[in-house]
Structure formats: C-alpha cells, structure tokens
Amino acid sequence: MSGRLVHIGSAVVDYVYRIDALPAPGTEKTASSFARVAGGGFNMMVAASRTGMRVVFGGQLGSGPNGDFLRAAFVAEGIETLTPPSPLMDSGNCVAMISSDAERTFVSWPGAESVLSLDMMAPVVVAPGDWVFASGYTLSYPASRDALADWIEALPVETPFVFDPTPVISDIPRPILSRVLARTTWLSCNTTEAPEIAGPGDVGAVAARLLADHCPKADGVVIRAGTNGCHVRLADGTAQTIAGFKVTAIDTNGAGDTHIGAHVSALSRGTPPFEAARYANAAAAISVTRHGGSSAPTDHEIQTFLSQVTDRRAQAGHGRPMHNCQKA
C-alpha cells in the first residue's frame, strides 16, 4: 500500500454512558456502565490504521489532560501527530449516551480541535501517494473553517481528498461547504446528510445530483444507509446499492467512521470502488457488534467475515448477492 491517510479533523474525549433509555426531562437515570475513550475523528483513523493504512493526524490536540489522554491513544494505535499541542486550551469532550436499542445521543464541548490556522497546519506536508480526509465538524467551527477550506483548496491536484459532512452539516456555511465539495474526490455521507446537500429524492437521484451539481471533480459518492448498506455512484454514471450485513447490533457509535476509514483504506490499495464499499459494509457491521466507537476490526477480521458470509450463501444455494445496478 502506498501513501498515508492524512487526517485533518478533530479528535475529542468521549464520556460514554450506557442506559436503558434516555431520561425524561427533569428526571435522572443511573447508567449501567461508563467509559472514557478517545473519540471523534479518532474512530475513523483507527479503522484505516487497523485495515493496513498508515495514518497521521494534522489537526489540533490540546495541552491539558484530555489532550494527553488522546495522544496516548494515538500512540497505542500507531498514529503519528504532526502538529504540536495547542498552547491555548485542552482538547474538547463529548458525552455519549447509548440506549438499549444501540442508538446514541451526544452532547459535546469543543476545545483545541475547534481552533485551526494555516500557521498551525504548517507542519502538515502532504506527500505523493497520500490521501487526505476532513470532516464537517472541523468546518463547522468558526475558528477553523476558513483556514481548513483554504488548505484543502491548495492541495495538489493529484491528491485524493475524502470528505464526510457529518450530522453538523447545517452548521457549515454554504459557501464554505461548496468550496470543499468542489475539491472532493470521494464524498461519504448518510441518508440524512445527502439530501441536505442535494435536495430530496430517491437515493439514486440524490447521488447523481451530488456528483453533477456539487462534486464535479469527484471519482464517486457514497451514501451510507446503516443496516441497508450503502449506495455508490461513480463519475462515469455507474452505480450500485451494496447490500449490508445482518448482525445483532449492541453499539452503533462510530459505525459511520469505521465505514469511511475502511473504505478509504481499501481504495488506497487499489480495490475497485464497489468491492471497497462491500468491504466497508463488513467493517461497519462487525463494529456494531462491539462496544465502543473505536471498535473497528482488522483487515484479517473483515476478510474472515466476508469469507464466512460467502460460505453461508453457497451452502444455502444463494450464490452471489445481487446488487441494484444502473447507468445514466
């Protein structure tokens, strides 16, 4: 595999509480468990790293206990930090409440990751063969969005740039969002975020508009649909809905991040796009059967999972799964 994943995003400390259901207003719940873990962009980086891609971080970590905690987590996963700690503040945090149906609710507090300047990013040098990733969270912060958009636009033409708008897409000023989308090589979003950009419609129409009207330089777009897999449309007009995998989910936190990290990793080593999407579907399916946002599987675990699925289908006489294919 050539090149690195250069992640220009935000990492925070997650405080994760497991509860049977969200408390009603004015009431209190006692959690069944609590954990303090690295989160935010860390989850996507872990997915790429565990599937064989070298990952470096070019965002900002803080100079307090949260920043120290995140740096230790990065070291444990073999992720190099390119920028020095922020002299201004500590890293932010996020309270995540995971209910018994595996859904999650978040409350976040931004820190050093929300302040980014071109001077701070000076140590981040993109080399030939690298892939670059950014998320909507960093673009939603008023003190980082302009510098990051400028930096993205200045990337070498040949450098693939992957963008995830994230659930905070409505907090990104449309001019900033349009600039970033115009430079995007691969857009990965979910079924809520995609129409936020391109307007309502069925997934095929939305994907087509994303490419035609918003991401004119993109190789393709991915619209993630949870247990239903994802829809992929390429610049040449070919498209497939890649089926998901049926598993028993216990924690969906970080599933989207895992999908993106695994997809980028597969693409970077030359895996064809539709095959890479199936690989990412498998990675996300495995991750939701485990506790924690950074529960991404390794490449070996994904390959074993896919082999077992293929064996079960063959034994059942189903053969290869059928996908919805189209070309416009």
From TrEMBL:
User: What residue stretches are annotated with the Carbohydrate kinase PfkB domain?
Assistant: 5-295
This protein's record includes keyword Transferase = yes
* Key word Transmembrane helix present: no
InterPro entries given in the database record: PfkB_dom, Ribokinase-like
> Keywords in UniProt for this one?
Kinase, Transferase
Which GO terms fall under molecular function for this chain's record?
Answer: kinase activity
Classification via SUPFAM superfamilies:
Ribokinase-like
Q: What is this protein called?
A: PfkB family carbohydrate kinase
